[in-house]
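Long-time lurker. I teach an intro course on protein structure, and each term I like to show students one example going from raw sequence to a predicted 3D structure in token notation. This year I'd like something fresh instead of my usual example. Would anyone be willing to generate the tokens for the chain below so I can use it in lecture? Attribution to the forum is fine with me.
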Amino acid sequence: MEETGGATAYGASLAGRGFDVNKFVRQPQTIVRILSWIFALVVFASITTEGYINSPQDPDAKCIFNQNDSACHYAIGIGVIAFLACVGFLVLDVYVPYMSNAQERKYAVMADLGFSGAWTFLWFVCFCLLASQWGKTHEIGGIPVDAARATVAFSFFSIATWGILTYFALGRFRRGVNEVTIPTYTEPAPDLHTPYPPTYAPTSYNPTTYNPTTYTPTTYTAYPGSVPDMHPQPPFTPQPQPQGDIGYQPPNY
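-- Reply from a regular --
Happy to contribute to a lecture. Here you go:
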């Protein structure tokens, strides 16, 4: 699915945004895929219903493309597989926006890209084979010419539609690989010119002009040396006990 706005991954919106049916149906990829589904239906339905006839000489039914059964079998096989693949990829286009894993989306886009590219080539081979065999068919009596021409024409149209689907898938794959818009956190580069970390750097800094001033020391008065001692003397002075007489002296009465 192609998204024109918002966060996307591999061409689809991120998981959780919901699904819009009207927007999905109007997308170019969805329209082309539905056309491819219709063209494949016309090719194999025309051959299975009117692609085999029997001649009066041979009771066995033969392919209308120069009686080459291989051409009819090839066109039926390519048409049936393309028919089923269109249904499957339509369901996948609806489911891709609900994939939360980008790796799963990558695998889905790669599958679409590979199958669409392969079927573009196989439809080209089918067109060349049917056109060549129809050009070699000379006896067209009793042959449903309209069914044969419709098969060849819609084989050619299928080349164009599957080629467009291949282009869409390739574009989604390139955007998913190179320009995935899933938001991721990246560490900011440090600013070597800022003295602060980026988180705490000031928003604006206006330096002020520094004007030096002259320092004048304070002058103190000298402490006078002839100040009388104002501390009072103790009322009595204890007499120290002689050091030599340490014995007991009885009191005198």
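Some talking points for your students: Confidence is low (pLDDT under 50) at residues 1-7. Helices lie at 21-26, 28-50, 69-95, 102-135, 145-178.
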